[in-house]
Amino acid sequence: MTSVVADGVNWSKANLTGLPNSVRFSSLVVSGGDLAFVLDEATKKVYKSTDGIIWSQIATNYDVEAIYEVLPSASGGDILITVNNNGSLMFAKSKDFSEIKLLNSVPGNIPIKDYSAAKVKMTSLSG
């Protein structure tokens, strides 16, 4: 059971369906304004939802270890993720997890759990 809010003020209860108990909600990311993705820490599987209530598992070519955030882009950003590629952790990107493009190896000091992502708007400091 969770709560939903339609107007930003008044909350009501809603039953989530399709999600296992081992989902890592800190991995929740919204892409394109209407798709939400979240990672199941136990199985390394990704789930998607268009309403935040009904969820379905997505078939991927890799075990997903972490979902970070949507990368900034003028044409709609990809989601930055970490995947297990034959025992090696790799950064990768994907728009919706239907296709995953491998990038480079993940350095040992980059967290794959117990982190938080934040968006920062950069402004010019020149006066």
Characteristics of this structure?
127 residues; mainly beta; four-stranded antiparallel beta sheet; 46% strand; globular
What would you say this structure looks like, in words?
- This protein has 127 residues and is mainly β.
- The chain has one domain.
- Helix content is 0%, strand content 46%.
- The strands form three sheets. It has a four-stranded antiparallel beta sheet with strand order 3-4-5-6, with no helix packed on it. A four-stranded antiparallel beta sheet has the order 7-8-9-10, with no helix packed on it.
- Strand 3 and strand 4 (35-40) form a beta hairpin.
- The mean pLDDT is 83.
Strand and helix map with partners:
Blueprint: E1 2-5, E2 11-14, E3 23-31, E4 35-40, E5 45-49, E6 56-58, E7 63-70, E8 79-85, E9 88-94, E10 101-105
Antiparallel strand pairs: 1-2, 3-4, 4-5, 5-6, 7-8, 8-9, 9-10
Q: How many domains make up the coordinates?
A: 1
Share of helix, binned: under 10%
Largest sheet: 4 strands, antiparallel
Rg result? 16 Å
* Terminal residue distance: 51 Å
Q: What portion of residues belong to β-strands?
A: over 45%
Low-confidence stretches: none
Name the average pLDDT: 83
Q: Class by helix and strand content?
A: mainly beta
The coarse silhouette is globular
| SSE order, one letter for each helix or strand | EEEEEEEEEE
| Cross-sheet strand order for the largest sheet | 3-4-5-6
The count of β-strands is 10
Q: Count the helices. How many?
A: 0
